[in-house]
Write a structure and sequence with these properties.
Aminopeptidase, 4-stranded antiparallel beta sheet, 11 helices, alpha+beta, 11-stranded mixed beta sheet
Length: 386
């Protein structure tokens, strides 16, 4: 990765509204989670900011002529919540040694474990990525932060940052790949007989509870439906974590600003919405995010979050479905393990050395675990008779 060049200058901005949407999105590409619309909906709804401890410090890189050639969704943080790449152990160890791990800088899509670009640059400025990374390190020192964490970045970003001395970490998610399937049954035909029957039974049992399923997009999702979806979201967060990061205003703003890229899988009973699963539609993927329900129905989570997403992807020719963080149970439903990436810069020599040693051991262990998980694939092998 090339070093920062004197022809570039970097500035930090506490509100994304200070940055022109066209300039930002000219660098961001087609991933909705780093779009100006998504990030501004978080800020304008109060989902990021003081309430959740995600303080925007968005990085903007300009060339000598003042043209915005790079940017990054960046936040100053006094905690490690809502990130999905866990560094609590690093923070605790540093604090016990008398250091101050917080504040830190987080380059991420808040509350969204979605892989994608994080150091956003114009395609015609190949040196901007290196200058942006170097500028972030200078900003870290100026802000008196202990470290920078670029989470769920792309593999090319991860490789380039590693070459520049950043610490490299991998994780695991489970994604479904569209092999040009003509229908859900066409997808099922790739599976072993036992797994195929299992999925058919799960879908049948969910539908037998008097539920109707439909996918809504854009303006089809009314304010009343968004209010209902927030109830679903709160049911999930209250049960699992006890706190809700996303404010009720966020959903409507998201729908207004991302339009048809917002896809809501809805379950209804007797005309009343009883469960929902939110997805965002990117250039080549459908990204599953939040879900919730007010009823207890067997396999409803699988139907709304996994099978309805596959149906939609097949119908619209979408290359893959990314169904969020964790969940080895996804493998049996056609979502196979893939690597995710993060890069970390830690200034303190002792902490940096300790984390580097930890990651040197973690990476091969993670890859061995992924190889073991891959053996659980539900798909037929080439030499397997059905």
């Amino acid at each position: 990765m090339p070093d920062a060049s004197p022809e570039y200058t970097l500035s930090l901005h506490p509100r994304i509204a200070e940055i022109d949407p066209a300039d930002w999105d000219g660098c961001a590409g087609g991933n909705p989670f780093v779009s100006h619309a998504f990030l501004s909906a978080l800020e304008d709804s109060g989902s990021t900011g003081e309430r959740t401890g995600w303080y925007p410090q968005h990085a903007v890189l300009r060339d000598a002529a003042g043209l915005l050639v790079g940017c990054a969704p960046c936040y100053a943080k006094a905690n490690s919540y809502g990130e999905y790449v866990f560094d609590h152990g690093w923070a605790n160890a540093y604090e016990r040694a008398g250091g101050s791990y917080y504040p830190k800088l987080q380059v991420a899509a808040p509350f969204s474990p979605v892989p994608g670009p994080r150091l956003l640059t114009r395609p015609d400025h190949p040196h901007a990525l290196g200058a942006l990374a170097a500028g972030l390190r200078q900003a870290m020192a100026a802000q008196k932060c202990s470290s920078i964490h670029i989470t769920f970045c792309t593999r090319p970003e991860w490789d380039a940052l590693g070459e520049a001395g950043w610490l490299q970490r991998i994780g695991t998610q489970f994604h479904w790949t569209n092999e040009g399937f003509a229908s859900f049954d066409d997808f099922l035909a790739k599976m072993s007989s036992r797994k195929r029957k299992q999925i058919k039974r799960e879908r049948r049992d969910a539908a037998a509870q008097g539920l109707n399923f439909r996918a809504l997009q854009g303006a089809e999702i009314t304010p009343a439906i968004w209010r209902r979806f927030h109830d679903f979201y709160r049911n999930t967060t209250d049960r699992k974590w006890g706190s809700a990061y996303l404010h009720g205003r966020f959903w409507g703003l998201l729908g207004e600003r991302l339009g048809e890229r917002v896809v809501l899988m809805l379950a209804e009973r007797d005309g009343e919405a009883v469960a929902g699963a939110l997805n965002l539609w990117g250039e080549d993927a459908l990204y599953g995010r939040n879900w919730g329900s007010t009823v207890e129905v067997p396999f409803l989570h699988f139907e709304l979050c996994y099978y309805q997403a596959i149906d939609f992807a097949i119908a619209h020719g979408i290359s893959r479905v990314e169904a969020g963080a964790q969940g080895e149970h996804k493998i049996q439903r056609g979502y196979l393990p893939v690597e995710t990436y993060s890069a970390h810069w830690i200034d303190h020599r002792g902490l940096r050395h300790a984390v580097a040693d930890f990651l040197e051991q973690e990476r091969p262990a993670m890859r061995a675990q992924m190889a073991e998980l891959a053996t659980l694939s539900p798909f037929k092998q080439d030499d397997t008779c059905d």
